[in-house]
From TrEMBL:
Transmembrane parts of this sequence: 65-82, 94-112, 118-138, 150-171, 191-212, 237-264, 276-298, 305-325
Protein's name according to its UniProt entry: Heme transporter IsdDEF
Entry-linked InterPro entries: ABC_BtuC-like, ABC_transptr_permease_BtuC
Annotated keywords: Cell membrane, Membrane, Transmembrane, Transmembrane helix, Transport
Biological process per Gene Ontology, one example term: siderophore-iron import into cell
Superkingdom of the organism of origin: Bacteria
GO cellular component assignments: plasma membrane
GO MF annotations in UniProt: transmembrane transporter activity
Entry annotated with the keyword Cytoplasm: no
Subcellular location: Cell membrane
Homology family: Belongs to the binding-protein-dependent transport system permease family. FecCD subfamily.
SUPFAM superfamilies reported for this sequence: ABC transporter involved in vitamin B12 uptake, BtuC
Amino acid sequence: MNIKERQKRRTIAIFLAPLLLLLSLFFGLTYGSVSISIQDILMVFFSSERSINHTIIFDLRLPRVLIAFLVGACLAVSGALLQGVMKNPLADPGIIGVTAGGGLMASLTMLILPQFSYLLPISAFIGAFVTAMMIYFLAWDKGASPLKIVLAGVAINALLGAIQNGVMIIYSDRVQSVLPWLAGGLNGRSWYHLDFMFPYAVIGLLLSLLAIKPANLLLLGDDSAKLLGQRVEWQRFLLISLAAFLAGAAVSVAGLVGFVGLIIPHIIRILIGEDYRFLLPLSAIYGAILVVIADTIARTWFDPIELPVGILLAALGAPFFLILLKKRGLI
């Protein structure tokens, strides 16, 4: 792809991002068991009258849509950072086990120490970070090849899954409260959950803006980055920590939602290239769009059952992952 074509695609992607985001937010607020027109939605926002529509929008749909927005943005940025640091476009917080590590720590907190539920984001971050570092060091041999990262991630994922199942059997009397969370969903999420997640997500997303320069420098290769005066291993450590923090923030509220960090950064990278000045912000916006739309579909298209959004995204993401593996000759 020549430079002019890439710039054209970049301009289109930037132009469409706010428009599609706005449409997805209205889509999430409009559809449900009760459909509300855009005109009525605007009346709710600009009128002080308390009505049924006001209750539906402000008490039920708006906090859920905003949480979906933050979850999608966090997971997409986390995936983009991991793909760059690990030099592997197949890296994703869910596929290589990062979210599984965060999920295990979060579920341990919920099952064993429910009185410390306010520590969920911190515990999820610790689990995600430790898992990411384990995978990276297991795959490292004068470089971390894509195949080694995938294999190490699959192995760690399986191990964490076994530990998770063991914990659930031991605490079987409390497991009902954790099962919907493990499926990855936003059912019942409210302003409480948004307040709970918001500071962590915003801090992580703002810090990701500071990660743009080091992420771009790491794309040059370790030797070139060192020649430019960069502390490569320290920057890699910080970027992995930030990716784990973002994944932990998302996991703490939404549970094990997967494939967002794989699909969105990969598509954006194909369209506009590797430059993190554009890749990170656009990944955040389009990741938010994907989760908002997917969650709305999951709660409306399967009425009277509300499908967890994690199941829907897994059904969409698994074929995408297999196609990537096939194209790269790994299967």
